[in-house]
Structure formats: C-alpha cells, structure tokens
Amino acid sequence: MSSTEQGTSSAAPAEPTTAPESAAAPEVPESFYYVHGKDKVVHKVSAGALQHSALIHGMISNLGYTEEQAKANPFPFENIDGDILQMVVDWCNQHKGKPTPPEDTNLPKQKEKLFDLVLAVNYLEIKELLTYCCKQVAMMVKGKSPEEIREIWMIPTDAEDEAAEKEAKKRAGKEAAGETAAAAGDAK
Amino acid sequence: MPNELIIDDKAFRSILLYEFLVHPVHFVAFDRFSSVFIGHPWVLEDFRYWFDVFYQRKFDDDENDEQEPIRDMRDVFRIDKQCLRIVILYESLHGKLMELNEKYQIQRQKEYAESIGFPVLPVSIILDKAFDRYQNMIRVFGYDIIDFSEFSFWYYRFLGQQFDWDFEPTEFSRYSFSDLPISIAEKIVKETGYFEWCRLRKVSRGLRDTVDNLKIDISLDILIRSTGALIKFNDNDNAVDYTPKNKKNPNGYTPRRPIIILEELFVKPFIDLSILFKNSSKVNFKLFKIECQFGTTEEFENKFFGDLKELLKELNTQIHVESIALKAVRAIDFLGFMKPGVLKTIQFDRRPQISRESMEEIVEMKQWKHAKNFVEYGFFQGETFPLPMENLFHFRKIDSVWLAGIDNGQLIKIKEVLLNSSHIEAYHLLFLNADFDWDVIDREFGSIIPESDGEIRHLKIPDSQEYYQIDLKYYEMRIQRKCY
C-alpha cells in the first residue's frame, strides 16, 4: 500500500516509489504527502489516507503545501518508531476515504508494540484506530487476576512507585543543589 | 509456513526438548506437536528417539562429539535465543489453535441458539491467549529466561506471520501502560468491563483512582439464583457469576464466565457493586434490573435485598438510574435510593401482588411522580394495579398495566384526561373486569373507523393537528397520540 525507502529528513529525500494504482483510480489526480519517523524512512501517503489523522490533516490545511513542497519537506515524527509509523500508514491507506466498519479485518495484526502504537495513534489523532487499539489493550487483561494484570501491563507496585518517586525527588534535589552551587561559582 | 520452519532439525529438536521438559512422555508430545504442525514429516519413533537422547542430557546425537552431559537442559534455551524463539512460535501456534477452537465453538453455540429461538446468546468473547501461553512456558523455564514483554513481542510477531528468527529488535517496547496519558488509560479501563474493574482496583493506587472516577453509562442486570447471583454488565459477554463456596459451579453452566466464590453469601457482590454506587455522580445506570430466578427461596431473596438495602443506606447516596426493573413488592425499599428526575422509567414485575398500602407509599414518592414511563411485566395471575387509575395519568407512556375493572364513568374520565393533557404519548391498559356500554363508547370516542385494522377509533384533539388512535376491546385499551 504505502511505499517506503531509506532516506533522510534533509531537504531532498530519496524518491519514494508508489504502489501500482488500481484500474479504478479516480480521474482527478490525487495529491500525496510525505512523512517519516524516527528511522527517517520516508512514507508517501495520499491526502485521502491522511484525512484519518486529525493532526496531519490540520497541518496540511494550515500549511497549504504544493506537492513539490511536500516532497521536499516530509512531515517529521521523530517521536514515533519507523515500524510503528509504517503500521499507521498502512492502516490509513487501507481505510482511505471510507469509515472503519465495526468488524474491521484490516486492523494491524502486530500487537508486539501495542503501547507504542497507542501513543503514536493518540499523537497523530486517529480516532478510529485509537478506539481499536484501546480495545486491544483492554482485551489483554480480560479475565486476568490483579497480579497477572500488573505483569501484562507492566505496572509497578505502589511501593515501587513510591520508591521511584522518592528517587526522582532526590535526584531533582541534587540537580537543583548542583545548579545553585554552579551559579554561585559563576558569580564569584 | 510454520511446517517449513520446523523442517530445520534444530527447530524440531528445540520444540521436542521443550515438550520433554513439560512432560517427558514422547507420545503425549507427539499428539501435541501434531495438533499444531498438521502433516509434519516426523513419526512417533523420532519422538521416542529424541526423548532418549534428552534423557542422556544431550541436545544432539552426534556420536563423534564427546560432549559433556548438560547439567540443566533449560540452558539450551538460556544460551541459544533462536531455540527460545522457536518455542515461542510453538506456543503462539497453540494459542492460535485455542482461539480458532473457541471461535468455532461460539459459532456453533450461536447457530444452535438461533435455531431454537433461544433469547440469550452465549458468551462470545475470545480471550487473548498470550499471557496464558507465557505462563505455560514460565512453568518450565522459570522467570529468569524470558519476561512477558519479550515473550509478547515475539508471540504477536509470529501471530502476525513474521517468522524472521534473526531479527534483533533494539528494544521490545519502549512504553508500558504507566506511560499512557490519563485520558487514554481511562478509555482503556472503560473498555475492560465490570469484572476487570473490580480487579484493576487491586493492581495499584493509580488504577484504583481511575476506576473510581470512571464516567460511564451502564446497564446492570442482577439475577438472583438459588446458587448465588449472576451480575451482567451491559451485555451477556460481561457477566460475573458469584457462587457460594459450597456450591461451586454446580451445573457446570458457566465454564467460560468468570466465577467468584463467595466466602460469605452476597457480601462480595456488594463490595464490587459499591464501586459503581459510590461514584454516583459519574456512573449513569441506563438500566438497573434485579430478577429472581425460578426456584429461589424467599429466605435467599430476602438476604439479597436486605444486604443491598444496607449497602445503599451506608453509602448515603442517590444513584443515577434511568430505568429500574424489579418486583413491585421490593420497590418500596429501593425507589428512595434513585435520584428523582433522573429516573425516567419504572418497570415492575407484577408478581407477587403489591399491597394497597405499599403502593400508596410509592405513589407519594418523588421518584414516582417524576418518572415518565411505567411498565408492568411478568406472567399474569390476576395481579392488578391496586390504586385508582388517576395515579397513573402523569406518565407519558404506560405499558401492560392491569386494572381491576373499567366502566363507563372511568372511560369518560380517561377521555377527559386525554383531551386536557399534552404529555400522553402511548398507554396500554388491560382490564380484569369490563363493564361498559358500546353505545356510550361510540358517543364518547367516535365510531370504529371502517377501513381500520381492528376496532380503531380516532379521538381528535381540539385546536390541533393531532389525535388519539384508540383501540378498545373488552379486555384492553391501547391509546397512541398521532398526527394527521
């Protein structure tokens, strides 16, 4: 569906190739935009597919990019892993121009990095995919005991939480003290 | 595809060694292996041969190799990550197989339920098997070989048909549930369902707060049974079976529904339910229904309602219930705990007959006066509304309410109410004894519309484009407000 190619986030990204258009392609030429994640792999996505993401859709509308400008300046999402972005792009392409049916069979099957996917989808504001992902995360703990839930969702115990909080406070205190000392040294 | 993967000798031996560690009987391993790798090229004799090699604490059968016996056979998986991944693939295939079997069973049950017109469809949730398969593996390996984060990464990857063993992820997952924004965590918790909320509260303080502050719309259906209580939340897929300690699953009826054993009868459901009741400003009960299964003793029922009343009293709150459904005789104890105005629909199980005194108390309650709809249901054995019908005329809709009798005077009164009120939408009244004159009916409600289906009359509302469609028979009266 989407095409990807190793490139950089510089002004001239590598030319991505497109998937062969179907025979029933619309007559009006479709505009394409480019996005890349942490791994700098550029994905070419149609404007129709990107409509699922409220964030990117907003960016496109506000920037008023031409296709050339879009090609030269792919939208950078440095906080999203490449494989996760690929998953999201694939989903957007599969659901281009149509609402997600309740029993969606084209949803991402890889759940190995589900929390990463949830955060990415939340950041990109893809409402339907977020709902699906939340359901998947919820399903992980269906019928499980509290101890199992803790392990599956990797939730620290209250004691661990408190210890981490204390540690963070201690570190923050030390850093603040260090900064004050450095500032005093500078003043001298 | 998986079959091609285990053609590799090392892959085959890894799975066999795993099976050997689970249960060192070669024909059991053969059965389990064949259930996931259908049409594999090995025979039972191969399994016996390799199990003998493993008994000698060896992982391969190279006779020239003077290898030391392996002290702990699990070291094979500790040292060689590929062997470990093959076992995860094996577990993922078992998980997939279990899911497929469940899906098939559910489909069969649904088809059967539909074929006999059974009103309640069976549970249709297929639980994620990743953690169960992980636990299966941990029982053999212990926790030091792999944690759930790593296991689930490979497990789902294999389920997604990605069989690249040599793939080396830089990290398994950067994030966990604790990293999610609060709004997302709430969304996920909401999706889990009632049974999980009770458990999530015990996981951490943060999750307890999240559950306690959920803003939700729910339907709650409590079925009191002779063996405990079944609490259904929203639908059949979200039900919890509370069973007394000495009656654990007596009929084998709910093998896949969560069952909670009660140490003390009914204390536990109310501890769980109090999560919802306490949060009264945020939890909105679309329906709050309490049913009693046939065969439940009165003593048992009294215990349930007594405990529920005590709990609501203790919480000292009025819960937001839009529609309540319970036995009329129990209503007097519970309507007071519902927030007046929010309660739109009152549904009474008409059996047993409610006394006149109790009904007089109910009709004086704010909850009754502010409600919009009144429905009676359940098998009819002569139970009637014990008060004059004037007590019903503030409702917009009335359904299946039996009156002891009806005469000309009362029918004329109904006509006056209809013409002088703008709120009535649909009434369905039934009469145990009818004593009226059809001539009077024709005069007051007009004659039967000739082309109508049944005995329909039209009562025009003066100065409006609306009318009441009235279907009057000896035993019932159906009224519906309509537009011309």
UniProtKB/TrEMBL annotation, chain A:
Residues 165-177 have a biased composition (Basic and acidic residues). The keyword Metal-binding does not apply. Residues 8-25, 178-188 have a biased composition (Low complexity). InterPro entries: SKP1, SKP1-like, SKP1-like_dim_sf, SKP1/BTB/POZ_sf, Skp1_comp_dimer, Skp1_comp_POZ. Residues 38-96 form the SKP1 component POZ domain. The keyword NAD does not apply. One of its GO terms (biological process) is protein ubiquitination. Keywords: Ubl conjugation pathway. Pathway: Protein modification; protein ubiquitination. Belongs to the SKP1 family. This is Skp1-related protein.
Automatic annotation (TrEMBL), chain B:
It comes from the Eukaryota. InterPro entries: DUF38/FTH_CAE_spp, F-box_dom, FB224. Transmembrane segments: none annotated. Residues 180-220 form the F-box domain. GO terms for biological process: innate immune response. CDD domains: F-box_CeFBXA-like. It holds the Pfam family F-box. This is F-box domain-containing protein. It comes from Caenorhabditis nigoni.
